[in-house]
Automatic annotation (TrEMBL):
<dbReference type="GO" id="GO:0004553">
    <property type="term" value="F:hydrolase activity, hydrolyzing O-glycosyl compounds"/>
</dbReference>
<dbReference type="Pfam" id="PF00723">
    <property type="entry name" value="Glyco_hydro_15"/>
</dbReference>
<protein>
    <submittedName>
        <fullName>Glucoamylase (Glucan-1,4-alpha-glucosidase), GH15 family</fullName>
    </submittedName>
</protein>
<dbReference type="Pfam" id="PF19291">
    <property type="entry name" value="TREH_N"/>
</dbReference>
<feature type="domain" description="GH15-like">
    <location>
        <begin position="219"/>
        <end position="582"/>
    </location>
</feature>
<dbReference type="GO" id="GO:0005975">
    <property type="term" value="P:carbohydrate metabolic process"/>
</dbReference>
<dbReference type="InterPro" id="IPR008928">
    <property type="entry name" value="6-hairpin_glycosidase_sf"/>
</dbReference>
<feature type="domain" description="Trehalase-like N-terminal">
    <location>
        <begin position="8"/>
        <end position="133"/>
    </location>
</feature>
<dbReference type="InterPro" id="IPR045582">
    <property type="entry name" value="Trehalase-like_N"/>
</dbReference>
<dbReference type="InterPro" id="IPR012341">
    <property type="entry name" value="6hp_glycosidase-like_sf"/>
</dbReference>
<dbReference type="InterPro" id="IPR011613">
    <property type="entry name" value="GH15-like"/>
</dbReference>
Length: 599
């Protein structure tokens, strides 16, 4: 099956995707949201790639070096074997800062015999908008373009540079390397130095994983997801990306193709909540600072998303010269959704602020700023919660009173009251409690539909929506409340398709969705678990894990029929929900073992 069989490598500055045959087919440098230098992913002919080619009798196997972001692709014909270890360097420097340059190392490790391979090195800078020409120099190969704007890329290698450019066969007798750099190197690289970069990067990731708790069940899946989420964080500002790609379609041949290389407040807040649950408080603290820096004015309305360097304008454009993934046009850069109004982001942000205060109360340096933000959020929610919005799914049509948005307005008040208790601000509690109760009553009155026996997508609607399953996890309703149980059952009946969930089934701006939004299936599994259907939930979870790619990675969507991965990749949302589900199952297992030992 033709699938998104790619691995991601990254260093919290940028990332690259490498296929299961070792072909580098997506990378933007010097950072995540820069223009692409390789984009075969989005256009087979024009996009550009860096491929490792072997004869047909070589078997290829790919896996991550355990508990790291180093991708190992092994090529063997039985007698002759070599490996390519792909990574982006990341490790501590003596100064205490991280070394994370805009570079990719492809370390070629000789294993046995005299293996033969050739390379197809074909960068296409600036989204392949103009010609890119390659020039062999004394110490490197430089690729340059100057049609749209001037840009360059450097390749250093231990192999013969002319052979590399012409695609000649290389006989491997000892270790070698390729080093792709956005900047020209001051000191000339060597194979020994690249081997050292590999070991240092390996140690960085092993140390990072060592600071993460281990779990009785699904530990490998949790760790792979956690490493993937870490790779989608941008160190410089604390931003978290929704995904590493743009314009991978939700359905092949359709136009639901968006740029996800930005920081959605909702996605990022949920990721940070999970990452801090795993004990990585620095990521959480950096993200909180990112938010604080975005809110200079006390009454400033938060956008739903920002650029990773805190940009507020994300103008959407189409790259019409690119054919798109499997011909799915248009290819978009930028995202017009930044202008949308979504009232749920305030509750999500307040939830994260509260979580951080509880988890790291002795270590919060910006308590006064957080209290100011808390008061500001309550002021904004009080002013706007009665208004319709675009909702979690970013409908581009008319605004509606979405249930999820209203629930998250309630969450904003609930968490603000708890924050007020932490800071001893008792006068605010009484005032805010009345508003919290008003919102709660409004939801119970207008979002509950007795005809379908469930909370529905929006006020006055008959449509079901997977997002309302989060009512329970945000504490709006108890898992055993008959209203929640019947909502879970109604959603299962209406939105489940062979165990995979639609987000909703009412037509949106682009018609009826034909793929499952991966996170919704995880939400459903979690809800089944919470209402007591634990065996059924586990069976669904194990089946869903089987739909990941060969490395355990998930995109945004899964095709209902073929089960192929669709949408931007890898998707932070999908992996954070996987972790939440897996931790629930693992904790249950631990509790059962404790009870067994007591009895």
């Amino acid at each position: 099956m033709d699938n998104l069989n790619y691995g991601i490598i990254g260093n919290c500055r940028s990332a690259a995707l490498i296929s299961d045959t070792g072909s580098l087919e997506w990378c933007c440098l010097p950072q995540f949201d820069s223009t692409s230098v390789f984009a075969k992913l989005l256009d087979h002919e024009k996009g550009g790639s860096f491929e490792i080619k072997t004869k047909y009798n070589y078997e290829i196997h790919q896996e991550y070096y355990k508990n790291t972001a180093i991708l190992v692709t092994r090529y063997s014909d039985g007698e002759n074997t070599f490996e390519v270890h792909d990574f982006m360097p990341r490790y501590h420097k003596l100064t205490g800062k991280y070394n994370a340059p805009p570079e990719i190392v492809r370390y070629v490790k000789h294993i046995s015999g005299a293996p033969r391979f050739s390379v197809h090195y074909d960068p296409r800078l600036e989204y392949a908008q103009g010609n890119t020409t390659n020039h062999v120099k004394a110490n490197f190969i430089v690729s340059l373009t100057n049609k749209q704007k001037f840009d360059t890329l450097f390749l250093y290698t231990s192999f013969n540079k002319n052979s590399v450019i012409s695609g000649d066969e290389i006989v491997l007798k000892e270790d070698g390397y390729f080093l792709i750099c956005y900047n020209e190197k001051i000191l000339k690289p060597t194979t020994q130095k690249m081997s050292l970069e590999l070991e240092r990067t390996k140690i960085y990731w092993l140390d990072w994983v060592d600071r993460t708790p281990t779990y009785k069940q699904f530990n490998d899946e949790i760790m792979r997801s956690a490493i993937t989420l870490k790779m989608l964080t941008y160190d410089k500002t604390g931003a978290v990306l929704a995904a590493a790609t743009t314009s991978l379609p939700e359905t092949i041949g359709e136009v639901r193709n968006w740029d996800y290389r930005f920081c959605w407040i909702r996605d990022a807040s949920m990721v940070i909540k999970v990452v801090s649950e795993l004990g990585h408080k620095n990521s959480a603290k950096r993200y909180l600072q990112f938010i604080i820096d975005l809110m200079p004015d006390k009454d400033e309305k938060l956008q739903i998303m920002y650029g990773i360097n805190k940009q507020k304008t994300l103008t959407e454009k189409t790259l019409d010269h690119l054919d798109g993934y499997k011909g799915s046009k248009p290819v978009r850069i930028g995202n017009a959704a930044y202008k949308q109004k979504q009232n749920d982001i305030y509750g999500i942000l307040m939830d994260v602020i509260y979580e951080q205060l509880v988890k790291f109360s002795n270590d919060i340096e910006n308590g006064e700023e957080l209290w100011s933000i808390t008061k500001g959020i309550v002021w904004i929610v009080n002013k706007h919660w009665r208004e319709p919005d675009k909702g979690i799914w970013e409908f581009r049509g008319e605004d509606r009173h979405f249930t999820f948005s209203k629930v998250l307005c309630w969450v904003a008040l609930d968490r603000a009251i708890k924050v007020a208790r932490i800071f001893g601000k008792h006068r605010k509690i009484e005032q805010w409690t009345a508003l919290e109760q008003e919102i709660k009553e409004d939801i119970h009155e207008h979002a509950w539909n007795s005809e379908v026996n469930a909370f529905v997508q929006s006020y006055g609607s008959n449509h079901l929506d997977a997002s309302v399953l989060l009512m329970e996890s945000y504490g709006f309703i108890h898992a055993k409340d008959p209203k929640f149980v019947s909502t879970v059952k109604a959603i299962e009946e209406d939105l489940s398709n062979d165990g995979l969930l639609y987000r909703y089934k009412n037509e949106d701006d682009f018609g009826l969705p034909s793929s499952s939004f991966t996170i919704c299936t995880f939400w459903f599994i979690n809800s089944l678990f919470k209402i007591g259907e634990e065996e059924k939930a586990l069976a669904h979870f194990e089946r869903l894990l089987g739909y990941s790619n060969h490395l355990g990675l998930f995109s945004e969507d899964i095709d209902f029929k073929t089960k192929r991965l669709l949408g931007n990749f890898p998707q932070a949302y999908s992996h954070l929900a996987l972790i939440e589900c897996a931790i629930n199952f693992s904790r249950k297992k631990s509790e059962e073992k404790i009870l067994e030992s007591i009895s």
